[in-house]
Amino acid sequence: MISRLFLFASLLLPQLFVAQTKSAAPVTKSQFVENLLNQMTIDEKIGQLNLPSAGDIVTGAAQNADIASKIKNGLVGGLFNIKSVAKIKEIQSIAVQKSRLKIPLLFGMDVIHGYETTFPIPLGLSATFNLEAIERSARIAAIEASADGINWTFSPMVDISRDPRWGRISEGSGEDPYLGSKIAAAMVKGYQGSDLRDPRTILACVKHFALYGAPEAGREYNTVDMSRIRMYNDYFPPYKAAIDAGVATVMASFNEVDGVPATANKWLMTDVLRKQWGFNGFVVTDYTGINEMTEHGIGNLQTVSALALKAGVQMDMVGEGFINTLKKSLEEGKITQNDIDQAVRLILNAKYDLGLFEDPYKYCNEKRAKTEIFTPEHRAEAVKIAEESFVLLKNNNQVLPLNPKQRIALVGPLANNAVNMAGTWSVATKQERSITLIDGLRTFSSTITYAKGSNLDHDPAFEERATMFGKSLNRDSRTAEELIKEAIEISKNADVIVAALGESAEMSGESSSRTNLEIPLAQKELLRELKKLNKPIVLVLFTGRPLVLTEEIELADTILNVWFPGSEAGTAIANTLFGKSNPSGKLTATFPRNVGQVPIYYAAKNTGRPLGNKEGKFEKFKSNYLDVRNEPLFPFGYGLSYSTFEYKNISASKTAFKTNEEVEIRVDVKNSSKIDGSEVVQLYIRDVVGSVTRPLRELKGFQKIALKAGEAKTVTFKISTEDLKFYNSDLNFVAEPGTFEVYVGGNSDATLKVQIQLLP
Ligand code: BGC
Questions:
Q1: How far is the C-alpha of 646 from the C-alpha of 669, rounded, in Å?
Q2: 213: number of CA atoms within 13 Å, CB side?
Q3: 212 Cβ inside 6 Å of ligand 1
Q4: Cβ distance 348 to 87 under 8 Å?
Q5: pLDDT tens, 555-614?
Q6: With 60 as the cut, is the pLDDT of residue 117 above it?
Q7: What is the architecture, at CATH level 2, of domain 643-758?
């Protein structure tokens, strides 16, 4: 390794090579980086901190573009959102052949839930409760991205969100810090593997640090205001888990934290991230995150750029605040040489860790690009993982699974559309190649009839906003009545109606906040009319967020929530509808009864005036509403199966235990049906008395188990003091002696309970 490094240094970094050959000792990373740093001019240093978007660069044109001349002048540290080995190789060659110090570039991309082989949106992935599967999805994404020239992904997105109005709830793992932390670590491991030098691994970037998922009113980019105790207990854990898992980079969030935008928030970026958590990679801003601080009202571009650098941010995405102002700030004494050097060091470290100095073209392997992307093996994995993400919300009279002999009428704006299947943030996906629902169903039955039935929404302007980035639903010019009439005609002769309804892919994701969480009226009206036919209705629900389904639960016999399943959507849904696969997904974000209940989440506090009845009856002067009961429509952890599972015999290995001991919780779970299936067995605790108020329940363990028809297993969980810890008023992470209730079951309403006691 060292010798190859010397070779590279001798060819591409002549000054450095001369300097290093004088001493015989091998070059360590820090020596290499310091030597390089010593060669750099101030402009070249600031250049390393610059991350332009290269979305508009095309092969051939790169040499002429402004970016190309900046690369030549050493004013670019990395680029993002360019796809293909040929283009990346060409641009890398400018850096390593034409720039003075020949420092290779990083190539980033939003590889969020797969590359060309696309997995379910992250909220769907989280519903699998299958950490190995999630890690595998990230592994495959890394293999494909790195085969196409990419060495850095802007993922995982781990922002906890308890507000489905916020469109980016689709990009995260839902509402729970425990589950979110496990998933964050699994994804980092999947992307980065155990060795970043392996050309099939890439740098991960945990985002958006911090608290981006809690904007006021669920409105994108809006103000966040939160107590520190809540930050530490509920919102920080997944970011910290990613750091603990060794994530190489962090992205700052757009929002403010404690009145200071995250991008300039020294407490966040230095005190928490580096001093408390020990992060030693680099922090990149979000897209123009520095410039936007002028709109936030904290200063002009020079001021906010200096604030960001001083706070502990190293790379400037797109805005060019750093390259345009840092030199001036240095001359004026507003920042120091050391501030800049430290930032450059961290970026050079990352390039070194990837092995780019040895081989800047290591991700530019044409053969890999041809053989490792969108392979049959990867696609087969994507089918399996998508199937595991589906959440069966209702299945009356066992309408599902379907029988291929049944006459099926397929209706709905999402039934015959490829480009919406992969969901939001799927930039590398070839959208038109995704498998549609109708194509999936036709592999099981040749007699399926189809009618669109409705447009996405009555309002064409809304539909346009909700189908951006080439994700058209091909708006039908017929009237709503004509569309419904056609759907009714084909449904009259059917045994069962499958209605593919819900959101379009771009109704969630960035800048897609909603104040109405229902299925658009045009689609509801279709469902209402179909209901009048008195036939079984299966609602295949596409969504990027928890929706309000109070009407649909009455209209449909069965609801299968499929989120946005990815490139293999149709295959996975059809396999599930026909029973080749049995749903096992569980909700990771609460589904409210109406938008007024939001924010709503299972790990709520009791309040001083909790409701005294379980039926949800209104009680005056209690914590409830006049017009809706408190419970959600579907709680966290909820999801049915074609199998049924019974829980009994909960027990604890000891009722009282000391700080250094563990308690085993055992429970018997039986598949009481005639169909093989999998169940996510969930363990929740309640800390009954604390120095601060504690949630009514907190997830502290889960196991996904497969049970054959009739099979029973004893499931064992271990609880240690670590699991009982929380941040107290002084923000110390402590476990307080006392009584803990432990619940085990198939969702967060689990009733099987045992008590344990942590001794002083
Ligand atoms: C998003 C980030 C993303 C970045 C780069 C921003 O708008 O907030 O999540 O990584 O763009 O594409």
A1: 6
A2: 31
A3: no
A4: no
A5: 999 999 999 999 999 999 999 999 999 999 999 999 999 999 999 999 999 999 999 998
A6: yes
A7: Sandwich (2.60)
**Considering only 60-74, 152-166, 207-221, 697-711, which range has the smallest mean pLDDT?**
60-74
Cα distances from 550 to residues 202, 517, 547, 594, in angstroms, run 43, 11, 9, 8
For residue 708, the 8-state DSSP code is -
Q: Write out the two tokens for 176.
A: 């729970």
Say what the pLDDT of residue 14 is.
Answer: 41
Owner of token pair 């929740």: 684
What is the DSSP code string of 601-642?
-SS----SS--S-SS----TTSS--SSS-SS-SB-TT--B-S
The amino acid at residue 303 is T
713 sits in which H/E element: strand 712-720
The CA 498 to ligand 1 mean position distance, Å, reads 36
For the domain 379-589, what is the CATH code? 3.40.50.1700
Residue whose Cα lies nearest atom 10 of ligand 1: it is 154
CA of residue 255 to ligand 1 center, whole Å: 13
The answer to whether the CB of 533 falls within 8 A of the CB of 557 is no
Distances (CA, A) of 94 to 15, 87, 101: 19, 11, 11
Alpha-carbon gap, residue 309 to 335, rounded angstroms: 8
CA distances from 631 to 396, 552, 609, 624, 697 (A): 21, 18, 16, 10, 14
User: Which residue from 109, 111, 81, 114 is spatially nearest to 564, judged by alpha carbons?
Assistant: 114
CB 647, CB 744: distance < 8 Å: yes
Query: Phi, psi (5° rounding) for residue 598?
Result: -75, 140
Among 113, 153, 154, name the best residue to mutate to test ligand 1's pocket (greatest count of ligand atoms within 8 A of Cβ): 154
CA distance 650 to 666: 6
Q: Write out the H or E segment, with its range, that includes residue 70.
A: helix 66-72
pLDDT at 725 over 70: yes
Domain boundaries, the chain: 379-589, 643-758
What are the catalytic residues? 286
pLDDT (mean) for 124-146: 98
Which residue lies with its CA nearest to atom 11 of ligand 1?
287
Q: What is the pTM (predicted TM-score) of this model?
A: 0.96
**Strand, coil or helix: 703:** strand
SS3 487: helix
439 lines ligand 1 (CB under 6 A): no
Q: How far is the CA of 109 from the centre of ligand 1 (A)?
A: 9
